[in-house]
Every structure is written in C-alpha cells, then in structure tokens.
Amino acid sequence: MKTIGANYTGDGRCIFTVWAPEKKSMTLLLLDPSEREILMDRGKWGYFSVELTDIKPGTRYYFKPDGGKPYPDPASHFQPEGIHGPSAVVDQGAHTWQDQSWRGLSFQDLILYELHVGTFTPEGTFEAIIPRLDDLAATGINALELMPIAQFPGVRNWGYDGVYLYSVQDSYGGPAGLKKLVDACHARGMAVFLDVVYNHLGPEGNYFDQFGPYFTEKYCTPWGNAINFDEEWADGVRDYISNNPLHWFEHYHIDGLRFDAIHEVFDMGAVSIWELIHTTVKVLERRLGRSLHLVAESDLNSPKVIKTPEAGGLGFDAQWLDDFHHALYVLLDKAGRDRYADFGRMEQLAKALTDGFVMSGEYTTFRKRKFGASSAGIPGDRFVAFNLNHDQVGNRVSGERLCHLIDFERQKLAAAVLLLSPYVPMLFMGEEYADESPFFYFVDHSDADLIHAVKEGRKQEFAAFSSDTEPQDPFEIETFTKSRIQWEKRTEGKHRIILEWHRKLIELRRTEAVLKNVAKNDIRVTVLGQAGLVVHRQSVGGYDYLIGLYNFSDEEVSYELPGWVLGWTKLLDSKEPQWMENGDDSSTLLPAQAKPGQVVTLPPCSVTVYAGQVQLPVDAPV
Amino acid sequence: MKTIGANYTGDGRCIFTVWAPEKKSMTLLLLDPSEREILMDRGKWGYFSVELTDIKPGTRYYFKPDGGKPYPDPASHFQPEGIHGPSAVVDQGAHTWQDQSWRGLSFQDLILYELHVGTFTPEGTFEAIIPRLDDLAATGINALELMPIAQFPGVRNWGYDGVYLYSVQDSYGGPAGLKKLVDACHARGMAVFLDVVYNHLGPEGNYFDQFGPYFTEKYCTPWGNAINFDEEWADGVRDYISNNPLHWFEHYHIDGLRFDAIHEVFDMGAVSIWELIHTTVKVLERRLGRSLHLVAESDLNSPKVIKTPEAGGLGFDAQWLDDFHHALYVLLDKAGRDRYADFGRMEQLAKALTDGFVMSGEYTTFRKRKFGASSAGIPGDRFVAFNLNHDQVGNRVSGERLCHLIDFERQKLAAAVLLLSPYVPMLFMGEEYADESPFFYFVDHSDADLIHAVKEGRKQEFAAFSSDTEPQDPFEIETFTKSRIQWEKRTEGKHRIILEWHRKLIELRRTEAVLKNVAKNDIRVTVLGQAGLVVHRQSVGGYDYLIGLYNFSDEEVSYELPGWVLGWTKLLDSKEPQWMENGDDSSTLLPAQAKPGQVVTLPPCSVTVYAGQVQLPVDAPV
C-alpha cells in the first residue's frame, strides 16, 4: 500500500505524497503558518513525496504540478474550506478510540439503516446523529449506512458528486465528527457502513486531470468519463481507489462499505479493481480481527458479483437486491407498474424470496433485452433487501416515500415481508415510523453550466413518467430542508404503531431460530393465486417450522394450514388491535392456536405468522 | 437458435429471416428470375420472415427495411457480386460430404498452420490449396487455420474488414470452394480452423445500422464502434454472433474457431457472449460427436479466458500465447527489443515454458501499467504458441518474416523451442521452409475517405518505430502479389533443410511420450545465465526423461548432464551435417551417448536433445 496524501505521524512529522506520473516536478505549497513552497522528490512509479518535521495538524496546503497553479490534494483527508479550497493535514491518531473490544457484527445479523447525514437531523452533522442512536437501537437497528460523505460541492448533496475520496465532508463535521459517531455506534453494538463511489468523480472541484490520467475515454458512464482502471498509467489510479477502503477501515473504524453502481465500473484487466479490493480488504480483516463487509450496488443481476475471485467472481460479500423491491412494491401499488413494467406477478415475489434475482435471463421491456442469470442457491446473507432507499424515494418527482404511495395496512405488509425475508434488511431513515417528509434530489453547485445541465437532466428524467408535476428545483435550499425527516413524529399516532410494528418484526427475526437459516435451502413459497403467498421456513436439521401468511388482496383468502405439524401457534397477526390505526375488528383475527390442516381465512391486506413443530414419525425416538 | 438469413431446405423451399426490431415492415426483393417484392411477416423478438416454395439456389435478393432502399442480408451466406451487391441463396445441402468417419482431432495433437487464402497460392482460392495438402501433411501439419474468410471489400484483404459474418468470400471460391477444401483436409486427417472476428465489423459495405442497433457507443474499439452485446436490443445481436460458430461447424464441418481480439469485445451482461458461445458449442459438440475447438486471441493475459464458465471463466478451450513469441524472439534478435521493450531475459523464456504468461502482474513499459495474472498450473494444451503469425510479419514496415531477421542456425533454434514446447504449435504459411516473401498489409477498398484513413493510420503506426522505410501502399496490387509465398522454393537448398528440420521436430513431438504430458506439471527449466536454457521433461508416473539443451549465444556453454538417469542417448543435434547450411564441423557434435553427470559443451547457437531413463532406487522392483 502506497500511502498517499498527507500522512501525519506525530511530533510534527508529516509525509506528503502525491501521484503524478507524467509530471516533471511537484511543489508542495504550505499556507500555514505562513506561505512556503517545497519541491517534492520524484520517487518510483510516478509518486512525488517529501517528509517535513515541523507540521502542525490542521496545516493547509496545495500541490502545484510542474510548478503551475495550486490544486487540492486528490487524497486530501479534509477540505475545511470546501471542494475548491486547500487541503488540510489531519492527525488520524488524535481521536482516542473507545471501541477496543469491538469485533464487528456478522453480516447475517445486520439490520441496516441508510441515512443521509445532512437531512437526518436539523443540524445535519455526524454528531447530531448520536443522541438518536439509542432510539434506533431500541427498534433493533444495528448498522448505520451513511450516504456518501466524501467532500462534495457546497453543503447540500446526496454525496454522489463527491470528489476527494479520502476526505470527510466539512459541513458534516469532518474527520473528527465521523470518528465520534463511529465510536458512539460501536459503544451501542452498532456497525457503521459507508457508501463509496468508485465509478466516477463529481464534476465540480475535480482537478484530478492536473495530476494524472485518472479517466479514460474507452468507456462511457452516465455521469461522464469512466475512471481509468485498465489503460496506460492505471496503476496509480488503482492504488488510489483500492487503498480507499483501507483508509476507512483503519482510520475511521468503519465496518463495511457499500460500493455505488459497480456496473458502471469498467475494467478488462486480468485482476479487476474489485478483486484487488477484495484481496487487500481480506488481508486487513485478518490483521484487524474484526468483520469488514463489502457490499455492491449492482444492476447486472449477475451472481458473479458475490462470488469469490477464486470462483471467478468479483469478491463482494453481498449485493443489493433491487428485484425484491420491485417485485414487492408493484404488488402493493398497482401504479408501480409505470416505473417497473416487468413486475406485478405474485410468482415474481416468490422467486425473489427463494432465488434472489427475479430477472435471471428473462426479457425485460424496461431494458429491451434479456437480463441477468440465476442466483438460486445463493445464501440469503449475500443479499441486502429493502422497501425504500434514497433512489426509490428521491428519483420520484415528488420524492414520495412508500408511505405516501400505499395505505397503512399495506405498509405493515411490506415491512413484514422484508423483515421476515431470508435477506439482510435495510431501512431508509424514517421508514421505521413512516416518516412523511419527501426526499428530494438536491445539489449545491457553484458552476453555472453545471447548474443548467443538472436542471435539464432532471426534467428529462421525469419526462419519461408523463407527470404533470414540475420537479423540485435541486438548487433551492427548501428542496433540501423539506427533505429533513421529522423525528419527533415517531411517537405519535400511526407513526408510533408502525415503529412498534418494525420493532416487533425485528424481534421475531432475532428470536425465531427458523428465520436464521442463512443457507435458505429450507425456504418454500406457496403462491395463493395473485392474492398472496405463504412463506414456509424449516429449521436446519430441526423440527421447527414457521409459516408467514401474506394476503395482498382486498378480498379474504382461505388457506389450509400444513398438516405435517403437531399444531400451530400464532406469533403475529397484523389485525390485532395494537397494530390497527383506526380501532379494531377482532372478528377477523385468526385463531391463536390452530390444528394441522385447519382451514383459516386470511383477512384482506394482512400478515399472520404461525409456528409449529414437525410431527415425528410414529417410530421415531421421542 | 433462430435461423437467420436465407435457409434453403430443398425442393424450392426457402425461409428468409432477418432481425430488425425497430422496423415496422420488411420487404424481400428477389432479383431472379425477375424482380419481385414480398412483404415479410413480423414475428416475435423483432424477426421478420417469409417462406417461399419457388426459390432456386443461387437466387439473388435484398431486404428493404421499412420499404426503403435495398440492402444485402446481414446473415447472407454468399455475396456473389461482392460486399455491396445482392445476397444469394445457398443450398447448404448441395455438397456431398465424404468425411462421415471424421471425428476431429484432440487439441493437444494439433500442429496448426495459419494461412491466408489469397496469398498461399497464385490462384488465391480454397481449391488451389488442395494440391498442397499432401506436402503439408508429410511435414506433420494436421490443422489449417484460415485467416478470416467472411466477405470483405474487393478481392485483397487480410479478412479483418469482413462484414457479412455468415458469408464466404466470393473471390476465394465462396461456400462451395470452402466445403471442397474442408472435405479434402478431413480426407487427409487434417482439421480446419477459421479465424472469426466478433469485435467489430468492417467499415465498408456495412449496412447493419439499416436493420438494427448492432453497435453501441458505450465502448470504443480501435476499429470504431463496439458491437452491442449488453445494451438495449442486444439479444438479436447476440443471436447473430452466437449462432455464427454453429453455422461454420454445421454447414462447413469446421473443426475449430480462432476468435480475433477478444479483449476488444465488451459485455458486462450476466452471461457474456463468450459464455453463450461456449454453452451452445458444447451442446453441438455432443450432438455432432466430434471435437469442436474454441481458441481466443487475447491481449489480457488473464487465465479467466481459458477457464470454463462454471469456474468463472469465458469458456475458451485455448488461447494464443503471445508472450512465448516475444520472450523467444527477443532472445534471438536483439533488435527485437525495439518492439518488445519488456522482453529480453532468459528467465522470461523459462517462465513462458513453465507457466505460460510471462507478464503475470508485472509492470510493462509498453503498456505503462501492470499487466496480467499468473497462468502457472494451466495445462499446455490450453495455449497456442508460435514464432510467426500474420501480425508479427504484416505489422512490420517491410513485412519481414523471422527468417529475414535471424540467421539460419537461430531459425533452427526457434523452431525447436516452439515444436518441442508443451504448447500447441502454430506455423505461419511458408515458415516451415523459411519462405522469404514478405507479408504486407493490403486492402482493396473502394471508398475514398476510407483509403485515405487507412494510409494515414499505417503511417502513424510505423512512426513509432522510427524507421526510414516508407510503408508499402496497402492499396497497390503489388503489395498483395509480393506477399504470395514461393512454394516452389521449399525443395531448394536451405529451404529444404529447414523444411526437413521442421518435419524432424514434429516427428519427435509425436513419438516421444515425454513430450505429451499435457498437464506439463513435469516441466522444469535450468537457466544457463543469459546464454541458454535446458528444458527438462519427465513422463507422467514413468521413468522416461528428456532434456532439450538450447544455447542461444555465440559462445560455447558447458553443462553437466543430470546424474539421475541410467545414461543419455542423443535424439537430435542441430550441428549434425544434415542440418547444416554450409558444410559441417563435426568437431562440435555432442556425444551420441553420454554418462549421467557428464559435462558437455554446447556449441554456439545450437539445440541438442537427449533422452534417458530415471535410475531406479536400489531396492525398487525391476
């Protein structure tokens, strides 16, 4: 690992290193305490470096390639004056960590919670999150997933316009703030994931071309030039990217990374950037002695993504399972077919639950081609499932959350299918209490051309959905402030019920051994026409049996409970009074105990969970 | 498999099928016996088709997308009037095959022979090759590999500008000529390989855009737009390409395909076009009951290329091993470092022999990046090795072959290292007798802009090598005629000696069991400084031992023969009188028999092969 950036090692010692393989010289311009210039040494492989012994943490600096204009450090750890300003030296040893006993969590045990630092609290900082952690933990959430926090233009951005991949957004609280948050999470048994973007770099404040060939024109991404992973001089770029996970894991004690849109990373090399990352992280994981998780956002539906390099895969531990969202959502909201034209059949949700990818080679009208390959047989903890995420909300013209689109009963259904699924579930901030703030797309660029381009792009994107609604102006500050969640509502009325419902489901997931079969080779689904489905789980080598009965329809549905158990005990019933928004109708309640083979009537829009034990054969040892 | 093109099934019946997913209508325009137009039926998946019952083989036709201009059939089997002319119906059942008992050859047994149909004989046709087959077979060659034969512009082309991938070049003799050649080869126990190009289509006569989205701008190749394997509408393109191998195997009894430049084929889909081809071909192989070989030209140095899809690979049976060429050639011609700056050490040839890829992750100055991954442990029959091929000759400004670049003794050395290597060897036409014709780059375009572009491109390509020689004009007919080999020279003087030397080496390869260990886990190489090397082979589970002693230097080199054999018997000595161009010097001959541990003196530029049997332990059963 080549340590790039400003590496402060204590006692005023700091090594500055920057990669610029085609430059003849590199000048370090220090701004504090007064301006001075130092010519750096040209080392091997295109790296310039210089070690100084009189540097104070916080010192601001620029690099001047070939003695020209000053630019921020591509590997800057901190940009205290924003994306265009100088970089600052960070003493990564300054924080006194309290998490010595933290060993991370097993991926299968996670309840992920995606949040946007800027809108999760009124303050929009890392530190402001801390007071809410106990409430999140009480609900059962044990892993935060922060939307990208690398320095982006201005103060309002989802984070995907981040440029300095080693830096921590100044307006969020910078490096010190992030460390406080991580320490506070670990103290509560919560893991922290970061969303990192390696498919492109933000357009504004991107001076990387001044240093080296970070980009290639061989491939195109929707966001501009692709990053150069396999052309001339790619090694320095590969160092820059493949060391980035180590930076977060080592300096910030991060537990896992979510890699944005890996399908827009192009690398034909014999060792892909993902294999390189897998290999370096697995080495670090053994050294640190705690779990480090690598999760891909992939729009490929390719099982190779989550296979090891030895098995010909990319080496991710898990990937987001978009198909689960599409299959479930369109069953709950018929209007959803506008966006997800290829979904809408109950069998697709069944396939999502048993196999993973719904599109496993089928033709899709959305893509106008066949798509995907089968993921049958892949364990459940290799997939992250969700009913909501920043994209599903923010890429709607009015930023609608699921609770804006479907009624109360269906919200309960959606949560149950997700949280009792064989996949690692992820909630989007506020989802656990049906927060009703929209989540808009917002940016804070200062480049006029860019502002125009973003506005036009958004209009075109929404034009496809023939909506009359004018998209919210991404540059307006209200677009940002309106996107803040309303945390105070979580204890009120229907919000409180939804919150309790989530807590109950997570508790079931934690306590019922049957739901913990990661291999998920036990799962079977009975499709009840287009009305609903029954999910069967059986414990590994054991006698426990659990069924989840889901009625998505507005009609009652009869179902004969399986006969191969000794008897059924109801664990959950969405029609019980405590889960009802407007009073209750106990006449629709299913029996607390039921006989094998008993026919039950599932009320409209309901979920019921029964547990039983498999009947012993007559001559089995008792 | 969707049968595209004109599928003549006998008795005047012919089904015409063409893919044009975004066209509203398609008209078949028949030219014979008189012009008539037939509106085709729009079927599923964007295919138009019509079945007629009054078609004669040879009937010429065009398609008119949306009733507009007429264009040739993208899946034309024959373009009797060239690339811009009408397509013609071919009766693929017309040829009476004589090769019923042909079951193909095992890949490890092949001696490949790459030839360019246009310059292999004065006639430049398939049929003109046939009279030369017996001579080739007598030398030991048992597989022809034809440079691309799909219809290209004009009559002079290497073939990489081919457009109609299902057609057979008219000037070579069309479908009937190719079948005669294949049948004649099979009758002599020779296999036939075709070079196919799926990374781009030639620029001239390329009307594919009139039919469908065959190309994508998402990726760039050095030859223009990449073929659309993973974007909207890709399925029809994938059908077009993935059925092409079946066309050659079924209709033309072809035994193997060499896929041009697979590193310029971009496909992020869950099932890559190569996996699709692998799968369909393996099914066909079982059905036909004969060996079908898939060989890649790959500039990736990635072992994935030759792994099965089940193991995460692309599914090729073998790939070209360029590193072997580079490592050996630069040791024989110091000037070779101009072109292959990263080669020139004896250890690299040793690695090429034991592992395969020489560049297995090392930084290369040529690429300005680290390149490749290790192929150690991969069996020898997964690689094709060569000292010469169309590119190595034709991409030199004067079209020099190896025999123009190195002296007679070194030519013998080169042939021995190749033909006694653990890899499947390939010769380039005329190489077996050191043919001295150049092999130039030649084309025959009719498009003026294209002519200009090609000329400029060639100049720029050679500019990198700071040569004073003006490149041959690719459009001059003499450039083509000068590239014809001089077959008649093979029985004369030094040419006859080189020919016999090849015959002898191939015979050794065939008869010495030790050389047949495909797993090549037995191979060891002793590097003799930068002077030469000794290749050790030991038979699998047996007692046979063979060493090849190679002295590349102009000095004598001493070597102590291994002591763990009972005794050594010389099998080959390049200094024996029969192999010498200008008389002989028997004083340099190595002993016909040698003792274990005997020190021998290798003459300058020599190769000697000894065989022995491993000594039994004292108490071993005899």
Automatic annotation (TrEMBL), chains A, B:
CDD domains: AmyAc_GTHase, E_set_MTHase_like_N. Substrate binds at residues 258-263, 322-326, 390-395. The active site is at D260 (nucleophile), E297 (proton donor). This is Malto-oligosyltrehalose trehalohydrolase. It is found in: Cytoplasm. It is an enzyme of class 3 (hydrolase). It comes from Larkinella arboricola. Keywords: Carbohydrate metabolism, Cytoplasm, Glycosidase, Hydrolase. Pathway: Glycan biosynthesis; trehalose biosynthesis. Its EC number is 3.2.1.141. Belongs to the glycosyl hydrolase 13 family. GO terms for biological process: trehalose biosynthetic process. GO terms for cellular component: cytoplasm.
